[in-house]
Amino acid sequence: MAKELDKVEVVTVGVGWTGGIVAAELTKQGINVVGLERGQDRSTENFQHIHDEYRYAIRYGLMQDLSKETITFRNNRDERALPMRQLGSFLLGEGVGGAGVHWNGMTWRFLPYDLEIKTMTDEKYGENKLGEDYTLQDWGISYDELEPYFYKFEEMAGISGDGDSMPLSAPRNKPYPTPAMKETPITQRFKDAANNLDLHPFHIPSGNLSEAYENPDGQTIAQCQYCGFCERFGCEYGAKSSPNVTVIPTAQETGNFDLRTHANVTEVMYDGNRATGVKYVDLQTGEEFIQPADIVVLTSYVMNNVRLLLNSNIGTPYDPETRSGVIGKNYCYQIQPGATGFFEDEKFNTYMGAGALGAAVDDYNGDNFDHADLDFIHGGVLNVTQTGQRPINSNVVPNDTPNWGQEFKSQSIKYFHRTLSIGCEGASMPHRNNYLSLDPDYKDAFGYPLLRLTYDYTEQDRNLHDYIAEKAVGIMEEMGADRVEKSEMTDHYNIVPYQTTHNTGGVIMGDDPETSAVNNYSQMWDVDNLFVIGASAFAHNGGYNPTGTVGALAYRATEGIMQFREEDGQLVQGKKNSKVTKNA
Amino acid sequence: MADEKNDKQQSEISRRKFIKNTGYVAGGAIGGGILGSILGTNFLDGNQQQTAPESTDEANNFNRALMYFTRQEDFDVLSAATERIFPEDDNGPGAIELGVPFFIDHQLAGGYGNNDREYMQGPFYPGSDFQGYQTRLKRRDVFDVGIQAIQRESQNEFNASFLDLEGEQQDEILQKFQDDEVDMKGVTPTTFFELLRSATIEGAYSDPLYGGNGNMQGWVMKEYPGNYMSYIDEMEEEEFIEKEPKALRSHMSS
């Protein structure tokens, strides 16, 4: 029997970037917020012994404990979904700060094209360029409306960049809060090659800070030391912007934030009209609690936001047969065209670096190039990064080398400092057959169904991959590599090798309650006092890392939550079938 | 005091000479390019004698015992297999000298071997090539049945223990596992092989605190400096910068 606690104003499920932003913004206004986090508390002190590739990068020391909960996966609806028994393709976070602890820090704004992709694609290339199976739709908000929130996130996080050098990226009203990171021989080489090819190279906007910075909330983020341990690691300096050094202390300093760790939320309590609170298990005692709240905010990762709604019977699950329903719809991943260059006579200091240290071009991203004669839309940001190569994970050898034995050993040693790669966050368009739903067979440690991922590459993905990979090859050849190898896509999406943690969709935003789950304040169309924030709101996945856009949506949502406290009801007039709307 | 210091320096210099003259280090020959990196790590430790410092280490290294395996032969087969995956060569030591078999044994005894942080609830089905690890066996069990299968396959193919085969014959056996051409119960041969392969590489290159990467020789071969607190003053350098490797031990305050 769950114990019912005293009602609070706002409860959030998950305390990472989005939960932290909600907590900071609301508590500063004097609103009481309870943050429920299933993992442990942690701060910069927890990362003093973080330089351990095996513990953190290979055995996933900071990641989700899959023995309690995982997802199941199948390539298509005719297959039996099976559990992702160990982490692979993507790395789910756990603990205070969430994935904001072990991100690399690359911080982008999605393009204006992304937010109105359906309208702009139809206008320029005619309707149905991709065919009817692609469920492309606008986000219900324009870039101009979202721009101030992008800046709010960047200003809070102290992002380092040079906006003047980015003519093809999303336009900015203000410069980045801190200057771009250091130029290195590797970034310079990429830029020289790109310039020779008449492209527009620039430094990647970074959450690893180029200099010490105090943000508007009075939190200090230290200067990055380029130690080479960002991805999959926390920062021992507090120099990587994370919720733990920014929004969470801001919330805690108000005295209005109640952070409860080891609190695993299993259900959103729902009376058919409003969310009344959440049910959670205290993982240290096994006790079950119900936390009533005026406003419930789902701020966990994509997967868990979707799963909680489905397990709580909130909203209509997406059905790929009838294409009706919205929860679980438009799941997207990313594809990664690229090229690797082998240099016989040069060695690079690839063991040094920082997670977001790199150079990029946007010339093949969004609609920055003409797609009229191409069989795909969108593209991605092509980049070279210097994140810090480590010896277990980095054993790049020419394609014709075996992956064990004497030849492998000597080639992997030889090329450890003699390869550079151009990568790409390739945009992913939604397809009717790629979606999230509940698994009929497998359960988590508490008896609730696991989330089931049904996903495979589409023709759009393959066409985009082949085109962009050729561009990567061209830049790498211009960089002077002796041998260049183009990336290849496998026959089907594979859950095993690490690819990217940029999962999106499932609780998508839009302007039509028939085809989207939340409005542009991340407020559910069906449940006025339930906000679902994060990359789960992306109607498709763009050609960048998602965190900047997630942050912008979170700041937008907090404004919505504050407005909702004043006005109640729906904050946005839906295109059709909307409930009664205050602003109508 | 001053004399003591002087003596120490003298003995270090003579050790350097010794290394330079013989090229003999830690039980194996190594190339000259690596020499610079080794100096100052193992050999600057004043407690060590000029003669084969490794052997002195070994005798006093109480960590070099079995936590998981119960039969010496199983451990020996594992050792031989890891050595074929990561053999001693001109670059430097192989898996055995790096301590990889002990690394694997110790890992199997703990959370890794017990799949503590993996989803191990049933039902279990084989799955497609794209769905990943699908066996009710834990990693430690996979190694058990895998090692037994290596011996069985060696008997079938060559009528001998894996331990008595020539290197190329051992490779043939291992290749059959990688190619899924062996009968195994409970787990696919490929799954076992990939686990063996990845664990071997992990043992060769992980921080020496885990028992592998002996004397940081895995890092030395790869010219990987382990971990330094900062490269901020070196980021812009054009030339490749070689550094003596540093292990996590240096982050302890006591």
User: Any idea what the radius of gyration of chain A is?
Assistant: 23 Å
Number of strands of chain B: 2
Mass-distribution shape of chain B = globular
Q: For the largest interface in this structure, which chains are involved and how many residues does each contribute?
A: A-B, 66 and 60 residues
Average of pLDDT of chain B: 84
* Main sheet characteristics of chain B: 2 strands, antiparallel
Give the overall form of chain A.
Answer: globular
Beta-strand percent range of chain A:
15-25%
Write a concise keyword list for the protein shown above.
heterodimer; A: 584 residues; alpha/beta; eight-stranded mixed β-sheet; six-stranded antiparallel β-sheet; 11 helices; 21% helix; globular; B: 254 residues; mainly alpha; two-stranded antiparallel sheet; 10 helices; 47% helix; 2% strand; disordered N terminus
Task: Give a description of the structure.
The complex is a heterodimer of chains A (584) and B (254). Helices cover 21% and strands 18% of the residues of chain A. Chain A contains eleven helices and 22 strands. In chain A, β18 (435-443) and β19 form a beta hairpin. Chain A starts with a strand and ends in a 17-residue tail after the last helix. Chain B has a two-stranded antiparallel sheet with strand order 1-2. In chain B, a hairpin with a 2-residue loop joins β1 (24-25) and β2. The model of chain B is unreliable at 1-55 (pLDDT under 50). At the A-B interface, α2, β5, α9 and β18 of A face α8, α9 and α10 of B.
